[in-house]
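for the writeup, i need someone to sanity check this before i put it in the appendix. the sequnce is what the collaborator sent (i think, or maybe the updated version? ugh). structure was predicted straight from it, no edits. if anything looks off just tell me and ill rerun, i have time this weekend
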Amino acid sequence: MAEVSALKRFNDLLAGLPMTIIGGLFLAASFVLPHIGYPEGESLAWVCVLICGIPLLYLSVWRIIYNRGISKISSALLITIAMFAAIFIGDLFAAGEVAFIMEIGAILEDMTTERAKKGLRNLIALVPETGRKIVDGKEISVPVEEIRVGDIIRVIPGETVPVDGKVLSGETTMDQSVMTGESLPVDKSPGDTVYSGTVNRFGSVDIEVTKDGEDSSLQRLIRMVEDAENNQAKTQRIADKWASWLVPIAALIAVAAYFVTGEIVRAVTVLVVFCPCALVLATPTAIMAAIGQATKHGVIVKSGVALENMGAVDTIAFDKTGTLTEGRLKVSDIIAVPGVSESELLAAAASAERRSEHPIGRAIAAEAESRGMDVPECSGFRMQAGKGVQADVGGNVLRVGSQAFAFGDSAVPGDIQSALDRLRSEGKASVAVVSGGRPLGVIGLSDSIRPETARVISELNSMGVRTVLLTGDSAAAADYFASKAGVSEVKSELLPEDKLSCIAEMKEKSKVCMIGDGVNDAPALKSADVGVAMGAMGSDIAVEAADIALMTDDISKIPYLKWLSNSAVSTIKTAITISMCINFVAIIASVTGVLNPTTGALVHNAGSCFVVALAALLYDRKYPGENKSRPPVPQAAGNSSETAA
């Protein structure tokens, strides 16, 4: 075993970029020196043959031993045969050239497919190490792995819920974005379910454990990411896919050339020009050029496979919060009762909410501040978790919160009830404002749709791409938003495993791209044919799980990404077609004796250079939609209908 490991380390050293460059320099010297009066310089090609040929021989032998069936025959095997044939007739330059080009192709491909895998470690880090277990009325800290179904645990404000459970006592507000992606915090009271990995924002609650250890929601999420990673098939080089018939054909033509002409040189030349070096270079060079251009536009593509797959995508699934929306609450509706102005209503609500740490309270206070309003001071501030806030403002008791909290046992006026019902039907959060028992009105809040969203969806639809919304939000919020964005299909109230099931279902009939930004999107990002993460505001886990990351929150890059992927695939196909035509002409020239191994290697190398040049053009190709008008600047939130939860 130690010998095998040492051999692999030696092989990896030779296959690395520094040694390959050294081999290339010696190969160039072996070609130049004989032409300027130093014939002994030809022997320098041995250095390239050894540096680039040994990894090639190692790879071809390894595949013969370990690959199954026809996959034992690879492009590495064909090039190895050509290399040994050239050595046999004494043409060291031809032997070194085919090995060198093969190694360059392998290095370029490795550079495009390298990717980090620390996202799973970040996900695991969300699991708390301990929990507050209640035993005989006393609170003790125990390791999470010792918590069992039926135990009672306490979660105080700011703590992460360690296991799934049901609230027994207490009321609070939970940030469930890690599991559902919901932008709005969710109020919890006795009987409600809580999930591991979610964050308790305000009240202290006692929870009865319903799932522990490996069955908890967060652990299931971790396993889904692991499974999606393990189930991703490794993509073979296109040259290897063709090698199963390239090798036999090359061998037959070479043998036929030898028997017909009686010249071994012609047979060796056929093998040299038949080497699929241009095929080996076509994919990685085009993809490197495309990845380089994408980087200039703030799009990080982690692998060539992702770019190729994106070209075939016909369905794009979007997460909502933070992807098609801004990902933060804003005041969207200010509905005052007759006799009360919008400014009076907002100022009254902000006077109490300015002391609140709840996202709804902060959004109301921020809206008043953005309008430069004079907000009166309050006293006697009190907050009831999951209900609302109460304070003394101008000698009156002001209540801002849920309908039940604000009105108590009093009847709710019809116009207030109608406003609350409408806001709920649109999937918006809402608070009622009551001062001294007198209703002042209702304030609605929502996550604002990105100004470019509708244009992006329209552009994708015009490209023949089906768009789907996958969200953990309510059906009302999802439907309202989809109607504003123009998304053709909606699936709502989804947990991470539900999103995963939706992706799997769509993959049966389509090539699917998933776009998201949250931890809850990680399994779907991994499972989709292509995963795209919002890098600027998205979680590290989502970015690491995805194949492509947008380094800004500009989703207008999605149509550009689709165009670039299509262009890369088209460039690859064009390069392969033309290089194969060059090889076909070179084979005829080899059989007829026009080319020898050295000149054949040069012609063969010209095809490889053409492939690289074609890929270079892709780097500077302009996106046709680049000069389209930009989306309008978003307006300040108010009574606008251009916001959605």
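The chain is about 50% helix and 20% strand. The first strand starts at residue 130 and ends at 135.
thx in advance!!
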